[in-house]
Amino acid sequence: MTDWAGKKILMIGAARQGIALSRYFANKGAKVILNDRRSDEELTGAREELDGLEISWVTGDHPIEILDGVDLVCLSGGIPLDLPLVQSAVHRNIPLSNDSQIFLEAAPCPVIGITGSSGKTTTTALVGEIAKHHFVFKKTDNQVWVGGNIGNPLIQDIDRMKEDDIAVMELSSFQLEIMTASPNIAAVLNLTPNHLDRHGSMSKYISAKSNILTNQHSEDVAVLNRDDPRVRELFPEVKGRQITFGLNPPYNKQDSTYYKRGKLYLQASGQVAKVIKAELINLRGTHNLYNTLAAVAISAAARFSLAAIYDGIVSFQGVPHRLEFVREWGGATWYNDSIATSPERAIAALDSFDEPIVLLAGGRDKDLPWETFGERIRQKVDHLVLFGEAADLVAKAVGDIQPGARPFTVDRCEGLEQAVKKAAEKVEPGDVVLLSPGGTSFDEFSDFEERGKRFRQWVKELT
Question: In what residue span(s) does the Mur ligase central domain sit (predicted)?
């Protein structure tokens, strides 16, 4: 483990990850500079969280001179690599890192890492639930630590972890793009266009994601989606054992999970075991069937028992803002899928329903293609309610309304609250009202969680 005492560390970004990592370094005796472009007034909460620690604050800008004498620069997830301060650090050969990298380097227990364009949080949470049942069956007092890009940064709990605990971490492309460490078990769920506004191209985005495999060793395990052509291109990068997952049985006896005649199966070391009936999964949609197949494969890699896998799946009720049931109103069922910040995710949500759909779509674009989303809207959506900056992009992808063809109506609203009220005017008994925007929340909200919470609030206020 690295001795951080006396090291001068610059932390850029005072959000969740920056606060947790600054606290960790300060407690290890490092000289921490915490830099954020926001004002002191805007950072009052962050300052209170770190009160009493030896941390120097530089706020309001990113001055280059704070790099003088720095041994390490750490980035919060939202800090782009083209920030001039970061570029200057690179030119000075100052190494870059982040909370996930530091955690992986120091973790005392096995680590499961999960990435992908969609399904990361659901799969991470489900694996965490299965792992809890694993320890229940073993009758041990070991803990499961779930975090990373989901919930709390794991670095804040590292000093409480024990050797036989298990850490399950969600990893985003923003974290992975600078990482030079890989988890013991690394899963790539899927690779579809996302965050191209940050990465610039699909190839750079995939390169960032593939870092989850790059520094694995022969004793490690890679869990990969064999149905995704972009993920299959990563197969040659596997250094240890490989377990794949997909809907149909694999063509050979490879270690894998698959779906057949309403059941999920695990194939390992040439043996096949039935895991669970699909009807017992509490999550809607084919995309969640994939997430569950991935979770079973990851659990097999971690040597969790079939009983723990079964109980974990049956008890798992999903994650907020991911096809989350809100209420029945107007004879319709209202769902919150605010996590759908890309057209691909919104398409998966639409494909989860056979009922007539009133769709709320929009938000802010991430330089992603909308055409396929527009096609699916024409196939599945009765009434389309658009809001936010991307409203015109979605409308263009859908095209002109044709008499007698879906969508039967298209309405534009300035914001989400107005969109909820407009949707309430459209509903009929038996409908599904679905918030699955396809765009990010940053045109109106701080993040997708705030957008989802406000949606829930406004739907529950309908009378």
Answer: 114-298
* Tens-place pLDDT, residues 146-164: 999 888 899 999 999 999 9
Which CATH number is associated with domain 324-460?
A: 3.90.190.20
Q: What is the pTM of this model?
A: 0.91
**Domain 101-315: assigned CATH number:** 3.40.1190.10
Specify the CATH number of the domain 8-97.
3.40.50.720
> 397-437: per-residue pLDDT in tens?
999 999 999 999 999 999 999 999 999 999 999 999 999 99
Is residue 277 annotated as involved in ligand binding?
Answer: no
The reply to whether 122 sits in an annotated binding site is yes
Q: Which helix (H) or strand (E) holds 381?
A: strand 381-387
192 labelled binding-site residue: no
121 known ligand binder: yes
Give CA–CA dist 279/413, Å, rounded.
38
Could you tell me which of 257, 190, 196 has the C-alpha nearest to residue 228? 190
Does 18 show up as a binding residue in the annotation? no
Domain with CATH 3.40.1190.10 in the chain: 101-315
